[in-house]
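Feature request disguised as a bug report, sorry. It would help if multi-protein outputs had a clear separator. Right now it looks like this:
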Amino acid sequence: MLAVTGEGGMASVQLEQVRKTYPNGFVAVHDATFEVADGELLVLVGPSGCGKSTLLRMIAGLETISSGRLRIGDRVVNDVAPKDRDIAMVFQNYALYPHMTVGENLGFGLKLRGLARADIASRVDDAARTLELGALLDRKPAVLSGGQRQRVALGRALVRQPQVFLLDEPLSNLDAKLRLSMRVEIARLHRQLKATMVYVTHDQIEAMTLGQRIVVLKDGVIQQVDTPMALYRHPANLFVATFLGSPAMNVLRGRLHRSDGLRLDLGDRTSIPLPATDIPDAWLGQEIAMGIRPEALHVAGSHEPSFAPEVEVVEPIGSDVFANLRFGSQGLVARFSPETLPAVGDVLPLSIEAGALHFFDPESGVRRPLSA
């Protein structure tokens, strides 16, 4: 197995109030503060233009830091050249040399660093074995599949034996099937190497399945940092709530009131009965944004409080059925098991699972915690 030791072993990465401001005054990253633990796989996720790649490039030294402090291990590296940071980066476009074989691509960086030929050969062989590239070492990139090229790009980072791996949307050029297999490959590789990795993606499925923790970004501002399931179950705001999860969380806007139990008045002569929830009395009569995950909606039993939306679109995907629904002026999506296969035009009596409601401020979008 390939040993990843780096010059100082694995390392944590610490960002303290790191900011990136361009000469025209545009702030791409606002005072980012978080730590990547030694050996952790941390994912930076958010929509295009949110600042995640800029953050990664600042860690790599490819972008200057306008203010704040960046540490890799025990060193402050704000002014350290990229080649001296002991990091290796994997790019979206593979960046392989077309005239070199796979073996030459893997060893080229080590050759530039002046390593002995025997050491280069040993590291290349180890990386090829780890990534199952042994049969491809004499081939040129042009004859490789996208997945094979991405494995070579990963291998080129592996042979460096860096303290930190940085991966910038490495799977975005692959088709859906290859993305799935490469996600598994990267997760296996991380578990095998116990390497510190920072992984950038715009794909929330990649983020949820790969990250031990996730940093969610919007407009250069960190929205929340937590484990995938903590983000899913306790999103800090509406952006996190609707960005993570597929299909996205349903968000209904209305006023809470009590009439034969708790209800959400949607303002168009419709209301939804809610499961018993201990809300503060001060919320009653106020505008609120309420979130419901699609899997929290189920066909109501005969004695359950229910509402009856109309089915507009049905999407069976084998393991699940997604139903796009309309209730008054509000649209919702429900996730059912394959045994529940409604037809377009059906009016379904639905209930909401107990404990499944999320409440947010309708203006700021910030989560409103329930009373203890």
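(second protein starts here, but nothing in the output says so)
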Amino acid sequence: MNKMNKKITSGYPLIINYLGIFAFLIGFINLLPLILLAFRPEEIEFAHYFLIPGLTSIFVGSFIIFIFRKREKGKLERHQDAVLVMSIWLMAILISSVPFMLTGTYNFTQSIFESTSGYSTTGLSVVNVEQTPGMFLLFRSLLQFFGGVGLVLVLTSAISDKFGMRLYSAEGHSDKLMPNLIRSGRTIISIYVGYIALGTLFYVLFGMPVFDAINHSICALSTGGFSTQSGSIGSYNNLPIEIITMVLMILGATNFFVHLMLIRGKLKNVFKHVENKLLVIILLIFIPLMTINILSYYDGQFFYSLRVTSFQLISAITSTGYQSVPSFLPLPTFFMFGIIVSMAIGGSMGSTAGGMKQYRVALAFKSLYWNIKDQLGHKKTIRTHFINKLGTRTIVDKDDIIQNHSFLTIYFLVLILGAVIISTFGYSIKDSLFEFASALGTVGLSIGITGYTANPIVLWTLSIGMFLGRLEFYVIFVAIAKISLDLKKRKPRVIKKLEA
């Protein structure tokens, strides 16, 4: 059939068409853990937990693709890209929760929680890793792998599509490394996989079992924090392993464009990048203060206190959530304050990390400085403000500052609301704030509130926090507003048809 004679699909039918493609690919993700059978054939009894949702998703996706096969893809209406991105993530979370539900060990709430934690690269968990089959542990790590670089980037880079970059931007990314999504996707994934391979190699060299090394390398770089050990990284009590983990966490929380500049030898641009400067400043201020703060808890052992502080602060600010200590409960208030602040700040824009993002925090402080300077200066003087972003001086206008302040305000309001909801179940406001800051920042550190026996409302609150934190509010708010407006427009049409 001639391309000109093909029917054009647009609007919500086009969204369904795209969802069919993504359902096919998400089904494939659910089948990937079966690779482990080549090394652990005894786990064949768990294969059907992944085969059922994986093959079903592939079948449904193929059916939708088949229906729309003769139609030309048109354009989505304004803001429908946000609807599509939100739908893709919700579909992925739902499909990938099925393996957990099929075991009979986890209910719907717990399964959705675990799947959300995986895709959002948070790392909070209701799973007892010591009693969980390796296939499920690998599955959780794979969820963090795909969630880390972004579902849209990974899935759309598998197909050539002109609409992909818009979706990728709507997902919360700004790291357009190459002129199109395909080249950007392949570059990012190449860097990502390369770091994982190196991390795995170094872990094994310093005594970590191969299976553990693969999982920890994936989850450290994706700043996810899922572990194969109940005591997280602290279970190994191995300084080289902690150092390797800190390096991987920092790499994962760094903008992928910075990685590209680093690989190309543009070190000057790397050091000038505003987020890198802010990270160094935060570490230089908080590590000494927090180390001194916990000295008495470790009998004055300075180097051990420095080791604990460095690891936990980096784990928090990169939004990874690995722990080198069994519990945060005995640690002093200032140490806890430093961790909460770090979780809220988060990593770089265009990285696998969560939180408010270092760029937004840096811009907030700079805009405060500019405002004071403008107030003290001559009123008729017009100043142009710059910020060093990715090695270049970038102009910052008033709209950028207003939008930045709006985001930070929404972030804090949601943080307080989530903490208040959790506190109604008998937890202190400090502990509730810590746990929800961890979920909203997609960090994964826990004060002990999250667990298999946690109240369902607490788990749903944390799940919503993880989802909001990963997609950064606006895409979700815009999607919900768009759907609501479209439903309102459709309602009068339906009434008119009934009256006719």
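Even a blank line would do. Unrelated, but nice: The two ends are 38 Å apart (CA to CA).
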